[in-house]
Each structure stands twice: as C-alpha cells, then as structure tokens.
Amino acid sequence: MSAVETIQRPSIAALVEGVLNGHRLHLARAISRVENQENDAGELLAALYPHCGRAHIIGVTGAPGTGKSTLVTALAQSYRNAGLTVGIVAIDPTSPFTGGALLGDRVRMRSLAGDAGVFVRSMATRGSLGGLSKTTGDVVTVLDAAGFERILVETVGVGQAEVEIASTAHTTLVVEAPGLGDEVQAIKAGILEIADILVVNKADRPGADRTIRALEMMLEIEGDGARYVRHHGQLLRVESPLEGDEEARWKVIVMKTVATEGSGVEALRQRIDAHRRWLLESGEMALREQLRIAHTLENILRAELNRRIASRIRPGNLEELVERIRRREIDPYSAAADLLAHL
Question: What is the pTM of this model?
C-alpha cells in the first residue's frame, strides 16, 4: 500500500482513536466503512463496542408528511440548549429502479450546520424494509462510541412497516399530523403499539383536535395507553416484568407540537427525558438493551448466512435453479433446503 493510500484510508486503530477523540473526519470515515460493509467493518465495530452504552437512542417514525425531519431538527436544538450533544441518523428510501437515494433529510436540517455538538448522517435503506437501513444499528454504535449523549434515528416514512425502530431505540416517538387521514392506517398497521410517546405535529392545522381525540380514544381502548416491550425473535424472548403491574407501567400520552415554530418541542423533550428516567428506575432499560442486542445478533446471523450461501453458489447455478423451479421440476422449498445443506 502506498503512502497516499495509507493517508486516504486510515487504519482501524487510527479510526478508533479518532472516533473516541471526537475527530469528525474519522467519525465520518468510520461510519462510511460500516455503512458500506467493508471487509474490516466488523473489526472496527468490535473495537468500538466496549465504549458504547451511554447514549439514549430516540426513534422518530411516522407517515410521510408528518414533519419528522423538522421535529428532529427542533428536538436536536432543544437538546443542544440543554447542553447535550446529539447524533442524528436520517434514513431515506432507495429507489427500487435506479438504486439511488436523494438523502434529502439533511436539506431540512441545515439550521444544525456548524454546530460541533451535532453530527448528522443520512443513510439510504438500500432495499431494507422496516423503515431502517440494515446497518442503522451499527452506525448508532459508532455515534454512541463517539460520545454523543442523545442519538435521534428518523425512519424512512413508509407508513405501515416501520415497527423495526422499536427494536433499535430506547424511546420511540410515533408522529402523526392532522389532515392526512392516516389514523386508522396507523392503528391497523400496529404502529401505535410501538409508541412510547405519540406526537401530533403541525398541531396548528385544522383537524388537529380530531386527530388527537382519535389517538387518545385508541389509547383508552388499548388499556390506558400502557406499553411494555416484547421481542418475538427466534433467539430470545424478552418480556417486561411490569406487564401485570398497571400502576408501574409507562403511560403513553398524546403531545402537540408545531415543529416549525418550536411550539411544544421543549415539553416533548422533557417527556422523553421522563421516559428515560422511568426506563432506568423500573429496570426496563436493561430489557430494552437485551432487545436491541438480540435484534442485532439475529441481523448479523442472517447476513452471515446469506453471505455463506451466496459464496457457495457457482456462477450460473442460481439461474439454472430458478429455471428448474419455473418449469416445476423442483419446488422452491426443496431447492432452499438443498442450498442450506451445502453449508
């Protein structure tokens, strides 16, 4: 490797040292290496992992047009006014046709530019479902190791499939807005079930009161808006011991904001902080960390299995197998079992 290449591509040790010391260029390069899933990304994450576990991770999800990016910007400014550092991960959709992504959320966050206490990273979904990129958790790990005290993760805004954020964040905000007619869709999709805090943004618009009443009614139907975390993955089942204790459980409420004006944002930040205190005092934080770890392990195992299967398929074999399935010479279940048998 030439001297120029060494300068352009820092070693793992240099990246780790830079991230831990708050070097923004090294932080950006470390995130790029992780996001691109380069060969040494696992080594980098392993070195940074012991320095994680201090940040409070806040997920912000909801349908397109609810003002999530503006709300995230306003929340970041509120946290900065409180003297806390903020990392932001903004997920944008990837085109299924071109494979490109606009990464336009950063355009809405220009007011944060130049603040050394804020780091904004836009990411594309790269085909992943659930509102997140498959490396979102890894990027959060890097930001956590870098010392950011609050990490805001904004999902892509697909509407009905964004529940994966509940397995990534400690506190999940579900953002609605009046006039979109999506209250029933959110209820049907189960997206309200992942909310620790419900936010009606753009609350100065007509129909805001109706939206708030509809959400509050659903919370009452579901039992006083109490929530507890469950994980139904294959590796681990995590359930809160607070499930049977109605008084001790966190109560979800509906809050109003007008993010463009900053209205209600400070109260929302205080509610998020109250949820963090409840997580720590109730012991729920440890359970949510177990949830995040189990989710991470499953994703790592799934990706590794996919890689191993792909590496053992000779060029042209997959096309031949697909054609045999199309001609009904073999069924897809037997074909999959045969591929797995060669692992």
Answer: 0.84
Q: What sections of the chain are H helices per DSSP?
A: 3-8, 12-20, 24-35, 41-48, 68-81, 136-145, 183-189, 208-221, 265-282, 284-311, 317-326, 332-341
Full domain range(s) for residue 86 = 52-283
Q: Is there a domain that residue 304 lies in?
A: no
Cα dist from 224 to 60, 146, 152, 217, 252, whole Å: 22, 38, 27, 9, 8
Q: 42 and 68 share a domain?
A: no
Task: Supply φ then ψ for residue 266, to 5 degrees.
Answer: -65, -40
Q: Are residues 162 and 273 in the same domain?
A: yes
Within a domain: 293 = no
Strands 56-62 and 150-154, how do they pair?
Answer: parallel
Q: What is the pLDDT of residues 195-249, one digit of tens each?
A: 899 999 999 999 899 888 888 888 877 654 445 444 444 455 556 666 656 677 8
Asked if residue 156 belongs to a domain, the reply is yes
Q: How many domains does the chain have?
A: 2
